[in-house]
Design goal:
mainly alpha, Four Helix Bundle (Hemerythrin (Met), subunit A), Helix Hairpins, 12 helices, elongated
Amino acid sequence: METVMHAPSGWRPRLDRWLGSAPVHNSLIALILLNAVILGLETSPSLMAAWGSWLSAADRAILAVFVIEIALRLYVNRLAYFRDPWNVFDFVVVAIALVPASGPLAVLRALRILRVLRLITLVPSMRRVVGGLLSALPGLGSVMGIICIIFYVAAVIATKLFAADFPALFGDLGRSAFTLFQVMTLEGWAMEVVRPVMAVYPLSWIFFLVFILASTFTLLNLFIAVIVNAINQEGAEDRVDATAAEIARLREEIVALRSQLGGVRQPTSYTLRRR
């Protein structure tokens, strides 16, 4: 005999659907934005003197909503709630606000603004960007290794070439690396570094030009390429997950229909012939 799975029933599935509904989702986003405005207004002494009690009450009310929301999600998902890293992030951010901000823990009061970061978990595009950045870390580590090698080689060459006449810029390996970092960022590199050096070493522009091309334009563009590729892969994975979730939902509906049709007696061919 075929075993028929019944569709889930009870409070948890219905509560889960309600928490994932668009009105609840949009309301949470609005509360996070409102909370960010309130925390910004609390930095104004004049506003706190006039409206401090109201702002604090509104902040506590919004925090209470966040606590209730997470409690409901824990009720729905139980320990499975913590399997999602984004849920863990939300839980930690809200839990920090519940720690008594007095005595040695007074610094935690400033961390209430971290609640604004919950926007990342609620807005799919932001979550996709952050996920792409995290997945790009291994590739970025390789790019950082190449940059470090180029910096080390260039710093050694610059120290040996320019240390005698420009000790403040290239007196040792550390100073050379810092000066080359300034050159890489293109912040005052021409007037503060390159032109004074060229006054003594006219052909030094070749060294700096090669270094800028290698560090600034090539490797930084490689940074961007690695990040963009990781974000695109993250988006593709999200589309696959959405498709899988839709297929799972359709299967549940089919199971529910089968369970409903199972209680209805279907007419047999013998019955049809008698009719």
